[in-house]
Amino acid sequence: MHLKSAGKFNRLLSLFKPSPPSLPFFPTSFLLFLLVPFNSFVPATATSLRSVVLYMETPARTMWVNGPIIVGAGPAGLSVAACLHTHGVPSVVLERDDCIASLWQRRTYDRLRLHLPKRFCELPGMPFPASYPEYPTKHQFVSYLESYAAAFHVRPRFRQSVASARFDHAAGLWRVQASSSSDTGGDEATYTEYIGRWLVVATGENAERVLPEFAGAGSFKGPVTHVSEYKSGEPYRGSRVLVVGCGNSGMEVCLDLCEHGARPAMVVRDAVHVLPREMLGVATFSVAAFLLRFLPLRLVDRLLVLLAGLFLGNDLPRLGLRRPDSGGPLELKNSRGRTPVLDIGALEKIRAGEIAVVPGVKRFVAGGAEMVDGSFVAADAVVLATGYHSNVPQWLKVRIG
Ligand SMILES: Cc1cc2nc3c(=O)[nH]c(=O)nc-3n(C[C@H](O)[C@H](O)[C@H](O)COP(=O)(O)OP(=O)(O)OC[C@H]3O[C@@H](n4cnc5c(N)ncnc54)[C@H](O)[C@@H]3O)c2cc1C
Questions:
Q1: Residues 199, 252 within the same domain
Q2: Which residue range(s) make up the domain with 272?
Q3: Ligand 1 atom nearest residue 78's Cα
Q4: In the chain, pLDDT over 70 holds for what percent of residues?
Q5: Spacing, Cα 103 to ligand 1 middle (Å)
Q6: Fewest C-beta atoms under 10 Å: which of 103, 152, 215, 300?
Q7: CATH of the domain at 257
């Protein structure tokens, strides 16, 4: 046998070492029988594939997936699986958490509603219930996603955290390794290798928290919370809270803190585009989408900034909210992923002096923070609304694009 093909054959064989004690139902001959046809006669289109699932004990457990492997059970992963399902294509969805849409269920604050009108957020094949308001609450959104998963028979494999995915050129297959921690929270993680022809990455842009390092961080005596753990302003009642970050989350958390009798100060380090959520009852997002059908993006950006001045007032720089010198709201979203803030009431609180706007943090000290302009902001607690980042570069072992 040719050395290269022998190596390939042995590698493939090694995937299918039987493990009689734990899996008595799959004798070796059965496994090899399925292995050979799959690799030799895979049909050109996925629609004719049928789901074949085998469990084997190699160093890691191995699962053979006939159809795409989808990583992430957020709205994107669910909708891909649903669309495949409607075309008769099986898939396996791997989700690190123990529920669908874990960003929405586990890592968002209670008062959250969709920032965009519902028609822009519905998934393919199923509209939101007519009874839902224009901006559904997060609970309504989650309930919609659950109905969606049920309607399209999407049953993710939970507690499967993908740690590596690479394309095995020799075998022409993706090898996706996922670890799963036990329900009991013990140390015994088990590893499963999923093998299949297609990989769909749907882990989103909000997979991991951004936790910047601040000078003196250890000196601060109060609680420090990332916004992904913030649920409500109730525990902060009467407290001075330094909210680091002025994106949609930072602004909304400040508003929530005000409404719960706390005193927030919002750190605004960079320039930011603030837009009204609606203009004369029409969603700004709808206006932008409409204008983009006829006008170039830069012109639409100019119009949006003009309209924002008209509806929000032109005093934002005086309030400490400077617009970026270059790049409009849509352009910056496209080029750098910087989402414009849609104001839902924080500006009014800033004008009323209920939310203080402060410059960047220089260093934390026991009772607050020294700011880059030399001022001092006293704080009892800190909320880091410093955003998220994707975790794809950590586990996807290929270059994209
Ligand atoms: C506070 C907040 C408000 C928002 N409001 C809106 C809005 O109004 N409208 C809108 O359109 N968007 C909004 N977004 C953006 C949000 O990203 C999208 O709504 C949506 O959740 C993106 O869907 P997704 O499936 O791409 O990613 P996610 O919802 O983030 O889902 C990704 C899934 O992948 C899982 N995962 C991550 N890494 C791994 C791994 N290695 N292995 C296995 N599983 C993994 C995660 O646990 C998660 O369940 C908001 C985001 C935030 C944080």
A1: no
A2: 210-388
A3: 25
A4: 82
A5: 5
A6: 215
A7: 3.50.50.60
